[in-house]
Structures are given as C-alpha cells and as structure tokens.
Design goal:
The protein is of the alpha+beta class and 103 residues long. A 3-stranded mixed sheet has the order 1-2-3. The longest helix has 23 residues. The radius of gyration is 16 Å and the shape is flat.
C-alpha cells in the first residue's frame, strides 16, 4: 500500500508539472503521467512466507492496474518485482538485481 501512496502523491498534475519544470526525470512528463512501480525484495528468506506471496502479489498488481485503467485511464505504468542479495552487492558492485515478474 505504501508504494501506491507514493504513486498517488507523485502522479498529481501539480507534481508532474513541477517535475518537468525542474527536469527531475531528464525528460518532459505528460499529465496524466503513468509511473512504473518497483517492489524490491532484499535478502528474501526461503524459510519465510515471503516467497509464497510473490505470485499472488503479481496477480493482484495486474488486477489492480487493469481495473484502475478501466475507470481512470492509464495512470499506472508497469509494476516490477525485483530481488537482490545485499551481501553479494556489498562485495561486488556488478552484483545483479533479478526481475521476478512484471505486471
């Protein structure tokens, strides 16, 4: 929910205008501006329930995007679920962030 709150605050017409005026993204933005959302799973524990939630959250993200789009147009870009190992990144700057799904 916190990610959606951030999106709703950033995607307002005034914020899009402000971001364009200050060149925050390096390109002009449009209103409405769809923004991509990124979920970052860091050091997911195989013994926790987190990994079992990855697929249901993808399904929920797709459903939410589709229903929002039907009523309000394209306000939401893609939602990505990413995973990373922080210990690997701490010792190797070339460590990867894996894309688990895109909705």
């Amino acid at each position: 929910m916190q990610l959606l709150t951030y999106h709703s605050e950033m995607a307002t017409p005034n914020q899009v205008l402000r971001a364009t005026r200050h060149k925050e993204f390096g390109i002009p933005l449009n209103d409405p501006q769809p923004f991509d959302l990124h979920i970052l799973l860091t050091d997911a524990n195989n013994r926790s329930g987190t990994l079992g939630l990855i697929e249901p959250i993808r399904q929920l993200a797709e459903l939410f995007r589709d229903r929002l789009g039907k009523h309000h147009g394209r306000l939401l870009g893609k939602t990505l679920c990413l995973g990373m190992d922080s210990a690997a990144l701490a010792v190797n700057d070339d460590s990867t962030i894996n894309c688990l799904w895109v909705a």
